[in-house]
Amino acid sequence: MAMTGINQADISRKLNISRATVNRALNGHPSVSPETRELVHAFARDMGYVPSAAALTMRRKGRTEQVGLVLPDGHNSPAMLSAVTGMNMSMEKVGYLLSLVRLDDIRHLHDGRCKAFRERVLDGMIVTQINDLSMLEECRKIVPHIIWMENTRDDDFCCIRRDETGAVRDLVRFVVAKGYQRLIWYGNRPNYPEAHFSVIDRYNAFHAEAESSGVEHETLHCFELKKQQAETWKGIQLDKSTCIVTYDQRYAIRANMLIAASTGKIAGRDYGIVSCDSAESSGELFPELARLSLDMLQYGKLAAGMLLDLLHDPQNPPASRLVRPDFIAGNTL
Fold first, then answer.
1. Are 152 and 197 in contact (CB under 8 A)?
2. Helices (DSSP H) in 108-237: which residue ranges?
3. Nearest of 210, 204, 254, 261 to residue 234 by alpha carbon
4. Which residues of 288-302 are buried (b: 16+ CB within 10 A; e: fewer)?
5. Residue 173, Cα to own-chain centre: how many angstroms?
6. Does residue 208 fall inside a structural domain?
7. What strands, in cross-sheet order, belong to the sheet with 146-149?
8. In this structure, what CATH number is given to the domain that contains residue 205?
9. Could you tell me if 126 and 155 lie in one domain?
10. 20 to 30 Å CA-CA from 210: which of 1, 110, 226, 243?
11. Is 3 a domain residue?
12. Secondary structure of 94-113 in the HEC alphabet?
C-alpha cells in the first residue's frame, strides 16, 4: 500500500539502512551494491515515494527555483491579489515557483513547523506590508535575499514602495490649481505606533503642501470608519471652494454617501472630493471619483523583477524604487 508523503528518512527507517545509503541508491551512486539499490528502488516505488522537486533542482542548479511571498494576516484585498498575479506571471516566465508564506510561520520560526523554512527550500522572498521591525528582522534570518514591498523598511536597496509624498503633494497642487481654497483631510491620523508609512506620508504631505500653497486646511478627525454617521458632516460648511482629500477610496465613498444623506449636496457640483488611493472596486462603487490609482499588476511584476535581479547577482542588489501612482480625473473636482 502506498504511503502519503513518504520521504528518504522513512525509507531509511523501514529498511534499517542509513539515510545516506538511501540517498545514494536513489541517485544511482556506484558505491551502492546492485542488490541494495534494487531493494531501495522497489520499496520506494511500492510506497509511492516521489523525490522533492526542490531538492532535485538544488542538486542540479544550486538553487531551488522557489521563492516565498509573505503577506500580512488576513490581507486578501483585490489590489493585493492583482499584485500577486503580477509576481506570479513574472516568476513563471523564468521557471520559478511562487509560494505563499503565512506571517504566523515567521512568528513561530524557531518551532520548525514550516517545512519551507525548516528545509531551506526558498531562494528568496518578497515581504509585503509588515510594520513590525522585529518581524522584519525575523524574515532576514530565513533567507538572505529579500525584496521589501510596501514596508516600513526603507533602505537604499531592495525596497519598493509607492511614492506617497510626491504623489500626494502633486495632487494637492492640482486641486489648488483647480481653484479650491479650503481643503479638508478625511482619513487616518498617524498618531498611533503601528501606523503604516502610507498613513504618515499621505497625512504629512497633504498638510505640508497645503501650507506651502497658502490655502486653508484642516483635518476631520476619523474614528472607526464604520462608526461615521451623517451627523459627522452636518456642521461642516461645504461649498464650491472646498475640496475633501481622503486617505483612500473607502473614506471617499463613505463621505459621499453621508454628505448626500445629511445635506443633499453632490460631489463635483457642490464641493470637490478626491482620494489618495483606490482599489479595483472604486470603479464599481464610485466610478466618477477623482483619485490616485496604482497599477497593482505592474507593481507586482516590478517587485518580482527586482527579486530575480537580486537572485541573479546578489553582490549587486537592485536600487530601491519609488513608484508613482496615476491620476484618474473622474468628475468630482
1. yes
2. 115-118, 133-142, 164-177, 197-213, 231-234
3. 261
4. bbbbbbbebbebbbb
5. 29
6. yes
7. 97-102, 66-71, 124-128, 146-149, 159-162, 321-323
8. 3.40.50.2300
9. yes
10. 226
11. no
12. CCCEEEEEEHHHHHCHHHCC
The reply to whether 179 and 233 lie within a common domain is: yes
**SS3 of 4, please?**
coil
Instruction: Read off the C-alpha cell for 4.
Output: 502519503
Return averaged pLDDT per consecutive 10 residues of the chain, 333 residues in all. Answer: 63 86 78 86 77 50 76 71 93 89 67 57 86 72 86 88 96 97 90 81 96 94 62 85 94 91 94 88 77 94 96 95 94 96
Say what the pLDDT of residue 3 is. 46
Q: What is the CATH number of the domain that holds 26?
A: 1.10.260.40
Instruction: Tell me the C-alpha distance between 55 and 58, whole Å.
Output: 5
Assess whether 130 and 240 both reside in one domain. no
Residues 100 and 19 in one domain: no
Output the CA angle 98-160-249, nearest 5 degrees.
Answer: 95
Q: pLDDT tens across 155-170, in order?
A: 899 999 999 999 999 9
Read off the amino acid at residue 225.
L
Q: Is residue 119 part of a domain?
A: yes
> Computed from CA positions of residues 207, 213, 218, 222, in that sequence, does the dihedral angle turn out positive or negative?
negative
Instruction: List beta partners, residue 186.
Output: 220, 246
Are residues 19 and 43 part of one domain?
yes
Using CA atoms, how far residue 332 sits from 75, 175, 277, in Å, is: 30, 11, 15
Are residues 289 and 169 part of one domain?
yes
> 188-227: per-residue pLDDT in tens?
778 776 778 899 999 999 999 999 999 999 998 765 555 5
Assess if residue 222 is contained within a domain.
yes
14 is in which domain, residue-wise? 8-51
Cβ neighbours of residue 52 closer than 8 Å, sequence gap 6 or more: 7, 121
281 and 194 co-located in one domain: yes
What number of CA atoms fall less than 13 Å from residue 267's CA on the CB side? 26
